[in-house]
């Protein structure tokens, strides 16, 4: 359960007075998520998501994320709009954190998506990439290829406490990807974390693309590669070729260079999530109500591409 910051009913009711959203009826911490604290808030006027931003999300990036969510919602994508307070601002402070009240979207996250559902989400990603063309300024990917060596070195020998040999394997992969990374592919605004738990669906319809807090400018095909590592493996980390093919068909329009680079991009995506999961594995405070994700699941997926 991702609730790092506990919000009392009194503090929440007071927070809501800054908005024209009615009075507090109920609030519950949300079980899903890893990075930030989220509450489902019900008021006399409807439902909202309250997000309190934790350490990994930098305060100076928040206006960019808010602007991007609005830009994509304006373009017709199923992206939640941050709610403006009476003073016009979308970002406020609550319990010592930056906080945002966000439109609630219908739908559920899938644990075992079908090929058709994967294709529908990849198609939505392609629309999102096109909608991002008009969005500026660019934001660098802080967890992109250039960051991986530093992330790995910062954990250093502690990687061995997760699994013996992990440090050497990670460093070898960092080096291999530094040599092989296809920097010249088409770039743009990408989501960078479009896992099944960041998509809401009703049947075959995509009703929500959420959690834009890793969004940035990077290679578009890398965004699809991130999706492949998350949507095209089963719970035992076995590759699902039908899902991978459905993702590429749903996205459409990859050029030859992008198609040829997909295995390298997918290795990079695996390394990125292996590294961030390892950080969380080693650093999550015991008091946090959060289910840490298994870094070694992403090592097994990495070996699929690297072997
Ligand atoms: N706009 C929204 N509408 C409905 N549910 C949402 C919305 N935003 C988040 N959620 C719910 O909250 C959960 C955690 O949100 P998420 O942004 O993924 O958190 P984190 O940043 O911690 O990963 C999601 O899995 C979803 O269940
Ligand atoms: N999708 C990542 C976790 C990132 O956390 P999120 O809750 O912000 O999506 C992973 O699976 O490692």
Q: Can you give a write-up of this model?
A:
The chain is α+β, with helices and mostly antiparallel strands and 307 residues long. The protein has 2 domains: 9-103, Phosphorylase Kinase, domain 1 (2-Layer Sandwich); 115-306, Alpha-Beta Complex (Aminoglycoside 3'-phosphotransferase, Chain: A, domain 2). Helices cover 40% and strands 16% of the residues. It has 9 helices and 9 strands. The chain has helices at residues 9-16, 62-74, 115-131, 148-155, 166-180, 220-231, 241-251, 256-283, 295-306, and strands at residues 24-29, 37-43, 46-52, 91-94, 97-103, 187-190, 199-202, 205-209, 216-219. The strands form 3 sheets. It has a 5-stranded antiparallel sheet, with helices on both faces.
Spans of at least 5 consecutive residues with low confidence: none
The backbone outline, from C-alpha atoms, is globular
**Shape-level CATH architecture of the largest domain:** Alpha-Beta Complex
Number of domains: 2
Helix content: 40-55%
| Biggest sheet layout | 5 strands, antiparallel
- CATH topology name of the largest domain, in short, is Aminoglycoside 3'-phosphotransferase, Chain: A, domain 2
Mean pLDDT: 96
Structural class: alpha+beta
Bound molecules: adenosine-5'-diphosphate, the ligand N[C@@H](CCOP(=O)(O)O)C(=O)O
Query: First CA to last CA: what distance?
Result: 35 Å
CATH C-level category of the largest domain: Alpha Beta
The number of helical elements comes to: 9
Element-by-element helix/strand order:
HEEEHEEHHHEEEEHHHH
Over the alpha carbons, how many angstroms does the gyration radius reach?
19 Å
């Amino acid at each position: 359960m991702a609730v790092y910051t506990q919000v009392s009913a009194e503090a929440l009711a007071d927070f809501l007075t800054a908005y024209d959203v009615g009075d507090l009826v109920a609030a519950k911490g949300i079980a899903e998520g890893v990075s930030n604290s989220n509450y489902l808030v019900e008021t006399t006027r409807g439902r909202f998501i309250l997000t309190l931003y934790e350490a990994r999300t930098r305060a100076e990036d928040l206006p960019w994320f808010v602007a991007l969510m609005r830009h994509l919602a304006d373009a017709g994508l199923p992206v939640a709009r941050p709610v403006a307070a009476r003073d016009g601002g979308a970002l406020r402070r609550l319990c010592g954190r930056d906080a945002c009240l966000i439109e609630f979207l219908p739908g559920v996250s899938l644990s075992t998506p079908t090929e058709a559902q994967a294709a529908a989400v990849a198609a939505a990603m392609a629309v999102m990439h096109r909608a991002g063309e008009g969005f500026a300024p660019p934001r660098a990917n802080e967890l992109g290829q250039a960051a991986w060596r530093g992330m790995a070195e910062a954990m250093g020998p502690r990687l061995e406490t997760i699994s013996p040999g992990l440090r050497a394997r990670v460093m070898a992969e960092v080096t291999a990807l530094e040599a092989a990374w296809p920097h010249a592919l088409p770039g743009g605004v990408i989501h960078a974390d479009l896992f099944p738990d960041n998509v809401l669906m009703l049947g075959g319809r995509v009703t929500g693309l959420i959690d834009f807090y890793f969004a940035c400018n990077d290679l578009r095909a890398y965004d699809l590669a991130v999706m492949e590592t998350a949507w095209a493996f089963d719970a035992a980390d076995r590759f699902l070729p039908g899902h991978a093919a459905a993702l590429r068909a749903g996205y459409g329009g990859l050029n030859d260079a992008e198609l040829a680079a997909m295995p390298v991009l997918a290795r990079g995506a695996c390394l990125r999530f292996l590294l961030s999961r390892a950080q969380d594995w080693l650093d999550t405070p015991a008091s946090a109500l959060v289910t840490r994700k298994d870094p070694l699941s992403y090592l097994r997926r990495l070996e699929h591409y690297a072997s």
